[in-house]
Structures are given as structure tokens and as C-alpha cells.
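As a warm-up, study this chain.
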Amino acid sequence: MHNAIANLESYAIIFLVKAVRYTADAAKALRRHATVASRIRGAVTDYATDQTAHANNVTRLVGSTAKRLRVGTYRVVFEESETGCLSLK
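Now compare it with the structure written out below.
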């Protein structure tokens, strides 16, 4: 019974993670800023996994459905869809 609960918990965790898609411009910007790209990708992945992890660093943009994630001195603009995907700009 304990294994069944552990399997169910890991299954639930997999379902809660949102997929992250990078636009061509976002991928190019990450290549341009290679020194901090891993930190930015980590923050985006953390937010996709658990939105409360960076809740104080996420702001909804005025007049848009997009949000902004602050990572140090960098800003990541993204949109969330109903299907749970993050599309980075």
C-alpha cells in the first residue's frame, strides 16, 4: 500500500509541472547572455514547477496577459495558457 501512495505522489508531481517553450527571440537572448542563462532557465523551471517559489518576483503586466519574472537584473516576459504551458518572449 505504501508503494502505491508513493507512486501516486510522484504521478501527481509530474502532472503539476508546466511545459516551458522558448520563442526564437528568447532562445537567442539566452545565447547572448550565456553567463546567466542557466540561472534564468533555473528560475523559469522553478516557477513552472511551483508558482509560489517565485511569487514575489512575478508581476502581471498592465494592459496585457503577459507576466514578468525578475531574475537578478534581468526580466523574463512570459504568458501562461490554460493548458499550462509557459511561452517565453
